[in-house]
Structure formats: C-alpha cells, structure tokens
Design goal:
105 residues, mainly alpha, SMc04008-like fold, globular
C-alpha cells in the first residue's frame, strides 16, 4: 500500500471500514462479547475510534451518533433486538482475556 497516494489509500481504508460495518451488520448473531474475547474490540470500540478520529481532526461527533452509525440503528434498539445475555462461559473467557492483557502490560 506504500505505493498508493494518500487519497487513494484513505479511500481504500474507508471502503474496507464500510465493508467491515456491513459484514458485522450481516452477522448480528456475533455478539460484542465474542468479538472482545477473540479480537479485543467490538462494535462499541469502533464507535469510540470514530469519535477519537473526529476529535483528532477537529470535527464534532458524539458517541451516540457514532454508535448509531456503527450499529445501523439506535444502540438501544439494536441491543433489545440482537444482544443476548452473556453466558457464564463468555464472562469467564472475557475475564481471562482481560487478565492476560494485564499480564502483558
């Protein structure tokens, strides 16, 4: 990607990000806790990263608006429709992941 000009690279990165959002939208069965366990990020993280990117560029984007964009609907609606309660196994796996991260710090 180093041979690409900045504009093209940015456009490709943006297209890949939009594709990631579409992919997550197409797979609502994938729970945020599962993403956190396996990849150490979730839909909420993407929302926070959007807000941080906006702040870095002097743009205003609040967290709720970013979440609405990432989730494709208001977060409360998505949560009600698609978020399942975390299982004890998921909670234990997330705790183990977080402990592992602390040990690496």
């Amino acid at each position: 990607m180093q041979h690409l000009d900045d504009t093209t690279r940015t456009e490709l990165e943006a297209a890949a990000f939009r594709r990631l959002l579409r992919h997550l939208d197409e797979h609502k069965e994938v729970q945020n806790i599962e993403l956190m366990i396996l990849a150490d990020f979730c839909r909420n993280c993407l929302s926070k990263w959007l807000v941080a990117a906006a702040e870095e560029r002097g743009a205003e984007l609040d967290y709720d608006a970013a979440r609405d964009y990432v989730y494709g609907m208001p977060y409360a609606e998505w949560k009600e429709k698609y978020q399942a309660p975390a299982t004890p196994e998921q909670l234990a796996a997330l705790e183990a992941r977080q402990q592992q991260k602390k040990g690496q710090a």
